[in-house]
Design goal:
This protein has a domain of 122 residues: 3-Layer(aba) Sandwich (Aminopeptidase), CATH 3.40.630. Helix content is 27%, strand content 37%. It has four helices and eight strands. The relative contact order is 0.15.
Length: 177
């Protein structure tokens, strides 16, 4: 699977991507706002799961590499998974290597995958969650056309304390990109 944008392309991971995937997941900034960072075994298992899910039919989860369109340089990962089939809700998430922040790559990746969800996955609603302290993700969700649904209070422990999460969404009839 490939989705091509102006500056980036999204594609399935291959075995050759493990080095970058591992580097991204090992970076403390990647999981700064999460409950915990994955250990080596979890990273390996998550990567193998991403490789195997390519063959699922129907496919209910897409874990994709974000690469620069021109030279194929890996810059991050993005995923979308079916949360609730009855209401056709899909959840999107992403991580971009800090060396590539502030270039519009994450926003373009999110917009491309949301568009794919509505055009090819029959999504009615795409949601994203972010720690309320993660202002960069909140701004990205807004730039990508998502709207704040609300705040989930104290839904996980982050860095030893309870934290809140934003939930953002976009509905199929709102999507015009």
């Amino acid at each position: 699977m490939k989705i091509i944008g102006n500056k980036i392309r999204l594609r399935n991971f291959t075995e050759d991507d493990f080095s970058f995937y591992n580097e991204l997941e090992q970076n403390p900034i990647t999981h700064q706002y999460e409950s915990s960072a994955p250990d080596d075994a979890e990273i390996q298992n998550d990567f193998q799961k991403a490789l195997s899910e390519v063959h699922d039919s129907p496919r209910e989860r897409y874990e994709l590499a974000i690469n620069l369109k021109d030279d194929g340089t890996p810059v991050g990962r993005i995923s979308i998974k079916l949360n609730w089939s009855e209401i056709r809700e899909w959840e999107i998430g992403w991580a971009l290597h800090p060396d590539f922040w502030k270039n519009g790559y994450a926003t373009e990746a999110v917009e491309l995958l949301i568009g794919y969800a509505f055009s090819d996955l029959n999504a009615h609603r795409v949601v994203a969650y972010a720690n309320t302290e993660n202002t960069a993700s909140e701004k990205l969700m807004t730039r990508a056309g998502m709207k704040l649904d609300g705040i989930l209070r104290e839904v996980r422990i982050c860095n030893g304390k309870w934290c809140n999460e934003f939930i953002y969404s976009v509905l199929e009839h709102e999507w015009d990109k």
